[in-house]
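A common beginner's mistake is to predict each chain separately and then try to dock the pieces by hand. The better habit, illustrated here, is to supply every component at once so that their relative placement is modeled jointly.
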Amino acid sequence: MRSIMKTSFAALAAASIVATAAFAEGDALTGDLNITADMSNPAPRAVIEGLVADFGALHPDLNIELTVVDRDAWKTQIRNALTANAPDVVNWYAANRMGPYVEAGLFEDVSDMYEDGSLEGLDAVKSALTIDGKQWGVPYTYYQWGVYYREDIYKELGITEPTTWEEELANCEKIVASGRVCYTIGTKFLWTAGGWFDYMNMRTNGFDFHMQLARGEVAWTDDRVRQTFANWRQLIDMGGFVEDHQSYSWQEALNFMVDGDAAAYLMGNFAVAPLREAGLTDDQIDFYQFPTIGDFPQGEDAPTDTFHIPSQATNKDNARAFLAYVTSTDVQTAINAGDALGQLPVNANASVDADEFLEQGFEMLSTNAPGGVAQFFDRDFPAEMASVGMEGLQEFMVFPDNLDDILARLEDAAERVYDK
Amino acid sequence: MAFATTPTASTNRGWYKRNEIAITPWLFLILPILFFAVYVIIPIGQSFWISFHEWDGLGEKTYVGLANYERLLTDDRKFGISFWNNLKWLVLYLLAIPMGLFISLFLNQTVAGIRLYKSLFFFPFVISQVVVGLVFSWFYFPNFGLFTVILDLFGLEIKGGVLGNPNTATYGIIAAGLWPQTAYCMILYLTGLNSVDPEQVEAARLDGAKGYKMLWYVILPQLKPATFIAFVVTIIGALRSFDLISVMTNGGPFGSTRVLSFYMFEESLSEFGFRMGYGAAIAVVLFFLMLFFIVYFLWSMYQDEKGGH
Amino acid sequence: MFPTPIEKTSRSWQISYQIILPIVLIIWLLPLIAVAMFSIKPDSDFANGNYWGLPSSFEFFSNYGKVFFESNMPRYLLNSVFITIPTVIGAVALSAMAGFALGVYKFKGNLLIFFMFIAGNFVPFQILMVPVRDLTISMGLYDTVQGLVLFHIAFQTGFCTLFMRNFIKALPFPLIEAARVEGVAEWRIFLYVVLPLMKPALAALAVLIFTFIWNDYFWAVVLTQGPNAQPVTAGITEFNSQYRAAYHLMSAGSIVAALPPVAMFFLMQKHFIAGLTLGAVK
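With all components supplied together, the output reads:
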């Protein structure tokens, strides 16, 4: 099944293939290369601009045109871009999120690159790009999710990183008693609530169950799903989350953590950069894996961002060369470093930057995610299910009493989405 | 016919000359009609056509008959909420008319600088709804929003902030929309008041009419054309409400501020929307809702035309 | 005149009116005053919770400097100009022709065509959205200024034709008759007799359409993406997607975006209001 992502990141760490930069073998390229990237935030923007400059330096006769579009806007604009005047390279996301474009034949099949050895070191992450046995793009970065917390506040309250749900609840009680909230969150754009559900469900019912739900094999009204919400509700009822979170974006919600009104944030590793930028030092921020609830092997969210070649692209050979370049060992090491994207490299031969969060994340995903690696709620669930679902999750976080109604609605949508 | 087989310049001009009055309007109309047909008339038909299909906007369309409408009208809660919100917009947006009238009466004086006052009062209408939406959402922000701060002074609190609370969010957006719309209605009435017949007013004054009575029986009947235009533009504005919702709440919290126009966009072109057929069906419903008012408007214009000749 | 002119009322009411007037105006414009204030505040004011107080320092130059030199704002502004000006010219030209045809000539279907223009003008955008987007894509004009301009011209022609036709209808018809008797060609009548008389209508429509198109957001979102072709209304939200909400920059950007239509309004006030209030007086 395409949405299952049992990629073993242990293999990633263990693999040891001699790095040969694929791009270096090719002759200098000529002609045009149009890249449309969604890397619009400051750090990613610098990365893509650097990539283009370096690739251009390797191929002086190649005319590269880079368009950086707003990351959120791109989520709706990609379908136009793929059908009209398609660029040669575009950004997107792995797993189910590729589905509509693969089915419509808008992404180029790049299986050949995986077979002919021009993409070495990507075996471990290949499955995230696979639909119907073929590969439709290359990954360029991924990052862990987990709890980023205020180390200084935890110290002040005498609490430590929790590993079980009981510890978690005990911690949270102390935090609330100190006049703070345990977690900040901004659900205005919904997806942040999806992250919480992913973890609550993976911990309560296990990774495999979570994926069954994503594939529509379990009903939303199932008692096991209710148990997930019941656990989640414990945190909500004790005042564990920041109030009025439906009014904030995830960026705005960062302020609560920066100001010390909230002790932690369940987020992707991309939250580290703005937290540092806002003045928090590495002594004040730390990371821990989401605690266990039931007796299941831990599954983790580790969304993968990707590059694809539209099937209507005009300079596919140049595009392939660019894809090979982006995934090559040295480039992977460089662009995922702490001073660049600050995320994890997809190439097994690349090295993880000496950054406390990247090292912890890499360690966690390589050795302590035996359950499996999920992409994220809105990438694992089909589009319509994801949108209806996240709206329901947001409502639950504000009005937990509406749960029955919400679950009935989600199941109703699921019956339509999965053609039950 | 000789001129048809020997198309020399002179005979052509002769034929054209003879039929000039009949042909000229069509020559002038050809381009406008072409543009309008291609971009407005034909797309309406196409949307009807799409609404009978299931289509993700990328691949092939599948004909599904009336299935989209069936789902829409029988068991789609989002549609229900959107429709209900549309009604709220329609009714509450009309408040712009009395509010505009009130301000125009207040400003209809001849003190020094009144012209500048009038244009400053009209100011909000000139600004893009995106800017209006941004500003109002800052006003409504929980904790530090000015509106929240003021409510605090009176000991009131709206849980989640105006836009975060599903019971108040739609009203908050409508209030933001009323600001420029009231300015619009105000300017309509100011112009209308300008042309109120002073003799009638004086005559009524001699008869002892003043205040509300004067307004109701003498002034308002003369303002009827202004009221009519205000009504039409306000209704259209209410049904088109999209920009404000998109900027202020994006349809949230949990979909409570959706209206049909926003829901349609969401289903067809938003991040997770791949249901062009379903979206088209929503648009068709919205179209019929609007058609009701279009017909009313055309009908009253038709009455005018008949009366004018 | 109604209400009773202020000169004819009691002295005390005259004074209170003069006092109330500016107060009401300030309350009315409070949202705008807030944006103006936001736009000259330093970033730190927002971090410290000083949202509604006076700015702690005057950052006019640094904020507006950032908007103009460190963002895509100039590009968006330029796009807006390239979208708005051709649309104004195109829509006014087409509707002047249509208005002339419908206002001067009597022929079968005249009223029908006229009503078609009016009805089309009131149609909800959403019913046009998908087909117009597909059409624009298939013409290769998606994400171009031209794609937006063509649609705007077509759509605005409806509204403008309503305006033009009624205006021309009110012109003295004997003028046209006289020209005809002298044997002037019909198109010359349009150019040399009718068009000069239509100057006020042309001016009024031009400023109105300018404002409408400048402020358009919906079609900008549907037909364009990114700084290549997107107008300023869609561009403002770019400040939003940075890590932290940059209220001061968004405010400065909003003000910059609002200035052209505001300037247009104040410069051409008479025409603007004449256009808006068409039909409000009989």
